[in-house]
Amino acid sequence: MWPISPSRPRPVVFGAASVRSLDPALLAAVDLRPPVRRGDLLPLLDEKPGTVVLVDGLFGGTMAVTPTECRQLMDAGWTLVGCSSMGALRAADLWPLGAIGIGDIFTLYRLGTLTSDADVAVALDPDDGHRELTVSTVHVRAVLAAAVEAGLLAPARRTELARAAEDIHWTERSWAACRAAWSDLGITPTVLSAVLRLGREPRLHPKVRDADAALRAVLARDWLGDEAVEGRRCPACQEPLAAGVLFCPTCVSEAHETCL
């Protein structure tokens, strides 16, 4: 159980699809709000600064939250953490200004391996808790990598299937659409069914994994610096940290990235 104190407001978390399968106790410890969109951060400027975690966000048919809004929030004293989807995008935009990115997806954007917003884009059902109706590029790649590891696909086949899935527009890239495209490539029904079963496993969903890591890190309270714990260690290498030091310089690049 994570400590909750009236003197320390719960972290504000904007998320839906990427957090819905997480530990209920984890979600109970945060102020969970719907996916972020343009204008949603502005009311926070009237509140006492705390920590805001951007996970999921709306774009496409809805105006997306802008880097400028995020920067205004940080200028007002808020700690901005991003992961998974829209959060990873904005953290990658703003890490030089102090935004903190967590997880594989953020790292891939920072490295330039991912370059397009469409790599994390999915269609959501607003009438069912913003459940994912389509599947993102990053999710498809993670599932296909697991299929190779499980011996279901050869590496060359994985590349072929990934390209076929990426050719489907993100608004239409459902698992059913992927199955049809992969069937046309000669993948047997038995293998297709096994791959699609992997697609239903939360542990293979990179957005879910990153959201879990981000919320646990924020709720641990000993890495953001406002209530530093004496004797704490780097979360990556476990080396002791000096008082007031947020991140181990050996495990992070540049200035503000975490080593999680």
Helices and strands in order:
Layout (H helix, E strand, L loop, with lengths): L11 E3 L9 H5 L2 E3 L17 E4 L12 H9 L3 E4 L3 H9 L5 E2 L2 H8 L12 E2 L5 E2 L4 H13 L5 H12 L8 H10 L4 H11 L6 H15 L40
Parallel strand pairs: 1-2, 1-3, 3-4, 4-5
Antiparallel strand pairs: 6-7
Helix pairs in contact: 3-4, 5-6, 5-8, 7-8
Pfam families: TfuA
InterPro entries: TfuA_core
Protein name: TfuA-like protein
Sheet with the most strands: spatial strand order: 2-1-3-4-5
Order of helices and strands: EHEEHEHEHEEHHHHH
Mean of residue pLDDT values: 85
The strand count comes to: 7
What sort of overall outline do the alpha carbons produce when their principal axes are compared?
elongated
- The Rg value, from CA coordinates, equals 19 Å
Structural class: alpha/beta
Percentage of residues in helical conformation: 25-40%
Strand content: 5-15%
The main β sheet shows up as: 5 strands, parallel
Domain TfuA-like core: 56-174
Protein name: TfuA-like protein
Organism: Streptomyces lavenduligriseus
Tags for this entry?
alpha/beta; 9 helices; 260 residues; 35% helix; two-stranded antiparallel ribbon; TfuA_core; TfuA-like protein; single chain; five-stranded parallel sheet; disordered C terminus
